[in-house]
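[09:14] KT: can someone run the structure on this one? pasting the chain below
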Amino acid sequence: MTSTIEAAKAARLYQDPYMDWIEREGIHVVNGLGFDLHTVETKPWPRYGVNGVAVHITGRGDWASCFAIDIPPGTSTTPQRHLYEEVMYVVEGRGSTEIELPNGKTHSFEWQAHSMFAIPLNVRYRLHNGDGKNRAVVATVTSLPLTMKIYHDDEFIFENKHFFKDRIGKDDWFTGAGDLSLVRAGQNMWETNFVPDLSAIELTAWSERGAGSMNLMFLLANGNMHAHTSEIATGTYKKAHHHEAGAHIFTVTGKGYSLLWSEGDADFIRVDWKPGMVFAPVERQFHQHFTTSQTPSRYLALIGGGNARYPLTQKKRDYSTAKDGGQGTIAKSTRDGGSQIEYEDQDPRIHEIWLEEMRKNGITPQFEKFGGPQPKQAVAAR
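[09:31] RB: done, structure tokens below
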């Protein structure tokens, strides 16, 4: 009698077209909780004509995945065009991007470490390393897993000639200009295609997320990919929160660590980070970020599955929207059905760990400076 497994295999059930594409592509793959993109191994990627690696992080989820493109000195990638969204973050090096529209118009802009830019959907582009001595490493978070699972047709995805005119935006959005929308703390948005330096762009206060917290959301190439940059003031830390999987978190400046845990876990998972590090919490895993540097730390979060303009699910909509004009579940206490743990409700061990890190790094706690609630040290761990 045919087994259930054999029957499912014969019927071609439970397919993963994205992973099938990865195997056909012949790209080097790494799997793990997180990676230092300065040191991760890359190998020849025929499609791009340079080295690359698929950075499959444990918490990447179903919507998006990360690649790193390693461009040798003075060389360029092979021209590309595809029917999935792509946001790029420059880990190291300098160079330029050339974009060619179907109407013959072109855009070109120069980038450096800490630059971020989006490739408008389905336009032809290539990356150039402008340094004759040093390589460039560009990380890219894409919606390829979702796109491949929907269409599972390489020709349609990579050879489609449709021109998405509303994805191009204004000409000066390729030069670093943009439009600022002041919505509310935590949802103030910069709409553009190119951010020259994430370490220098001005952020806005978001005290609901933690003492001294700063934040700015991005809408890039009128796409569905969520992007935001947050800053953790030195001598402070963020409040813990959770959300869906797929948030690829890149350290831009500073150093520190994050604690990750799921409901009911007895212990924390610790991820130490510095510039070039990327990791992603798994589905509904609480995570909390702590800086241990003498200067503020910034990180970039790139998330598939929709943004504030185009939420793809009701859960995404609820995450950022509240009927009373508040923060939605994104910054609502878990006591009230939200996804954020307030300082007074956190595990007391968290503050004890942080105080020890402050002592080790010679940093004075700064919570009082920002007028925020002072997390209390536990008398004994729970």
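[09:33] KT: thanks! Helices lie at 4-10, 17-25, 144-151, 154-159, 314-320, 348-361.
[09:34] RB: yep, looked fine to me
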